[in-house]
Amino acid sequence: MILAHLDLDAFFAAVEELEDPELRERPLIVGGDPHGRGVVATANYHARRFGIQSAMSCAEALRRCSHATFVRPRHSVYREYSRSVWSTVRGVVPTVERTGLDEGYLDLGEVAGDFLAARAVAEAVQTAVRAATSLSCSIGVAPAKVVAKVASDRRKPGGLTVVVPGSEARFLAPLAVRKLPGVGPKADERLRVAGIATCGELAALNDEELRGLLPGKVGKLLRDRARGIDTRGLELGTERISISVEETFERDLTDREQLHDELRRMAREVAEHLRKSGKTARTVTTKLRYTDFSIRSRSTTLRVAIDDAETIAELACGLLDRALEDRPGALRLAGVGVSGLVAYHQLALDADWAAPFQDVRA
Fold it and tell me: Coil, strand or helix: which one is 139?
């Protein structure tokens, strides 16, 4: 296989800079209220020099860079740019697995016979994206998904890294284990305590050592990935794309009616995004973040896809109620999302047809 991972550079911030060129020379943070409880969605590279990263609190970002400019996310604008990017990419490489607004995998083997040709195709993709949208992207090319994804992050912004067959393990070996997709904070902590800091050290563990640190299938999976072994191909026709709206409240909320009002407002925004995109959705999800920053989500999947705000709101509120029955408490954040998108318009359903058949907890 010859695969590539494409990652748009600081996507939200880059779009804001295009919309307002005066922002280009400033530390720019896209996120919530820096004087409230918002978090950083992304930051441009000027801001990143101050150690500002995604998911950091906006208050901390302001402490690190008091002269930064903060803007609220505009997801409808980002979706329009994303559509232009992926339409352009498919004009060069037809087979794409889009995994988000700003990233995805490309099957370069379909248009390139070897890795030298694949480099030229990847360069053509970068040129086409910049010409069509004025956005830059970083690309990693490799025989395996996990290696391509790591490689795309190596030379940001606008970089291209090619890892040829046989060099996957050598490329990954010096990198921090945390750089490996699938290694979360808990696994990273267990490995670090055991003195395993790099992918090479993880790759060198024998079965007994691995079982003592990361038991079960997860340990073997991560060791394989550290060795550059990943047999996954592109997942076609199942793009993991969803539409969601969430908000960090200015103060923790416990009042159920107020929470319902917030979810109804979010549901209206989600429904508007669905209609503008010409899509309907089969799964509705409510996301909750408690005051201790723990996250819970509840989802329900319908027999037929919907796009009307009233039904989305009704389902989202019901999911919230059930989640709070399982775990009561004040909420710092709530969100409404839809997935299982269908690319055609569906009439709003009556209550019987909209009955869910699956309820998922997370």
Answer: strand
Q: Sketch out the chain's domains with CATH numbers.
A: 3-11+76-164 (3.30.70.270), 12-74 (3.40.1170.60), 169-226 (1.10.150.20), 243-361 (3.30.1490.100)
Tell me the two tokens of residue 195: 């003195």
Helix (H) or strand (E) holding 99: none
The helix (H) or strand (E) run that includes residue 29 is strand 28-31
Strand order in the sheet with 69-71: 40-43, 28-31, 69-71
How buried is 190 (Cβ within 10 angstroms: 0-12 exposed, 13-18 middle, 19+ buried)? middle
Q: What is the 3-state composition of the chain as percent helix, strand, coil, each rounded to the nearest 5? A: 40, 25, 35
The rounded distance, in Å, linking the Cα atoms of 112 and 141 is 12
Tokens at residue 307, please?
Answer: 């796009």
Active site (catalytic) residues: 103
| 252: enclosing H helix or E strand | strand 243-253
DSSP strand pairing (137-142 vs 103-107): unpaired
Best CA proximity match to 107, nearest among 68, 71, 77, 148:
148
Q: For residue 32, give the H/E element and its range.
A: none
The DSSP output letter for 114 is S
Report the sign of the C-alpha dihedral through residues 161, 164, 168, 174, in that order: negative
Interatomic CA distance for residues 347 and 361, integer angstroms: 28
pTM of the model: 0.68
- Distance, in Å, from the CA atom of 272 to the CA atom of 82, rounded to the nearest integer, reads 18
pLDDT (mean) for 256-278: 91
Start-to-end Cα distance in the chain: 34
Place of tokens 């606008």: 158
The tens digit of pLDDT for each residue in 105-161 reads: 999 998 898 999 999 999 999 999 999 999 999 999 999 999 999 999 999 999 999
